Amino acid sequence: MKKTLPKGYITWNDHKKRLMKDPEFVKEWKKIEPEYELARALIGARIKRNMSQKELAEKIGTKQPVISRIESMSYQPTVSLLQRVAHALNAKLDIRFIFPS
């Protein structure tokens, strides 16, 4: 069943499609897309595991603001930290290089 948005609201995907028509936006988006995808994946995994930022932070031996900064894209975590996060979420960390076809 498709959710109906209140009048005047648009989805992020629809908004992004509009923005992607602007070459300047596309240029800037390409710079931040990896951080956005990381933040999105972390938030999704944490919610799937029904964990708060504080609970996740405690599990990996850090403080809640560290998780918040990763999720808000204001901090670039080390691979080591991401491995600890993945382990705490009972997930596998998968880092790839994808070549355009």
Largest sheet geometry: none
CATH topology: 434 Repressor (Amino-terminal Domain)
Low-confidence stretches: none
The helix-strand sequence is HHHHH
Overall 3D form = globular
Supply database-style keywords.
mainly alpha, 5 helices, globular, 101 residues, 434 Repressor (Amino-terminal Domain)
Task: Summarize this structure briefly.
With 101 residues, the protein is an all-alpha fold. Helix content is 59%, strand content 0%.
Question: Could you explain the architecture of this structure?
Answer:
With 101 residues, the protein is mainly α. The protein has one domain: 434 Repressor (Amino-terminal Domain). The chain is 59% helix and 0% strand. α3 packs across α4 and α3 packs across α5 (79-88). The longest helix has 26 residues, at 23-48. The protein is globular. It starts with 11 loop residues before the first helix and ends in a 13-residue tail after the last helix. The model has no long low-confidence stretch (mean pLDDT 92).
Layout of strands and helices, then pairs:
Blueprint: H1 12-19, H2 23-48, H3 53-60, H4 64-71, H5 79-88
Helix pairs in contact: 3-4, 3-5
